[in-house]
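ok, trying the design again with the full structure, not the truncated one.
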């Protein structure tokens, strides 16, 4: 995507960002904008919603119909927008803490209901904005400011959680795998129903430093070395997959959306 086209999607009076130099959030945001551009979606016919956190600040930097909402409530707001404006393309941009911790209830029920929204989870495996605390996706035994001797809680697997809850398109890629990330977000935006794309991204300020992975380039190299495509992973043992990031498209199905069923129920009630 040409720089001129990218700039047309950005609010010119909201720079610089709050993100640390080298933060992967910018890569995920660019992938989202490239997907929007490739589909020819109109900014005035899109609503992009976020909650609270480093990645959730993304809505402040893009020139769409944007809502920067309460902590954990982005999906609830997005659901309301989609019901009020069913012809709008609605997307949620948020972090692993915002979407899966305080917002976890809204996440599973959006998937269950098959609300026609796209959810992009910026997963840096830690709380980046508030001091590097462990999040619901911090891997077992990894270090955070609240788990200095290693995380003892089993982390959520975002894609397994989305599939189990009922999302109808689910994929994962890392910021190293940028073309895949663009492809999956493009497909998610085109999909009718709840689509979830997990974007594994780097917080070198906390996660990378605490776990001695390194700075931004070293973390991105870490994603390269430790990622396995889904098809290959299916033939590998559990021990071989330890600490690996499995990427790919995990689930896709066509199922009536909540709005389809709601409209049918309204029509039936009028007979």
């Amino acid at each position: 995507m040409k720089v001129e086209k990218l700039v047309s999607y950005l609010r010119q009076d909201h720079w610089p960002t709050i993100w640390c130099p080298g933060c992967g959030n910018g890569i995920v945001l660019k992938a989202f904008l490239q997907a929007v551009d490739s589909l020819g979606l109109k900014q005035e016919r899109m609503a992009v919603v976020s909650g609270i956190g480093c990645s959730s600040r993304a809505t402040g930097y893009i020139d769409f119909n944007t809502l920067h909402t309460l902590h954990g409530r982005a999906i609830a707001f997005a659901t309301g927008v989609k019901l009020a404006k069913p012809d709008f393309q609605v997307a949620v941009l948020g972090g692993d803490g915002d979407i899966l911790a305080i917002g976890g209830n809204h996440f599973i029920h959006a998937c269950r209901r098959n609300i026609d929204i796209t959810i992009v989870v910026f997963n840096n495996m830690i709380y980046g904005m508030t001091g590097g605390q462990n999040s619901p996706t911090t891997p077992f035994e990894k270090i955070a400011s609240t788990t200095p001797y290693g995380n003892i809680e089993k982390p959520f697997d975002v894609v397994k959680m989305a599939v189990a809850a009922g999302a109808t398109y689910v994929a994962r890629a890392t910021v190293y795998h940028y073309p895949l990330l663009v492809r999956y977000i493009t497909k998610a935006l085109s999909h009718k129903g709840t689509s979830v794309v997990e974007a594994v991204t780097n917080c070198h300020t906390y996660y990378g430093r605490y776990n001695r992975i390194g700075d931004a380039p070293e973390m991105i190299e870490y994603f390269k070395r430790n990622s396995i495509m889904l098809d290959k992973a299916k033939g590998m043992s559990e021990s071989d997959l330890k600490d690996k990031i499995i990427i790919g498209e995990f689930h896709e199905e066509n199922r009536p959306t909540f709005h389809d069923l709601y409209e049918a129920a309204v029509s039936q009630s009028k007979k």
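Keeping the full-length input from now on. The chain has a mean pLDDT of 96.
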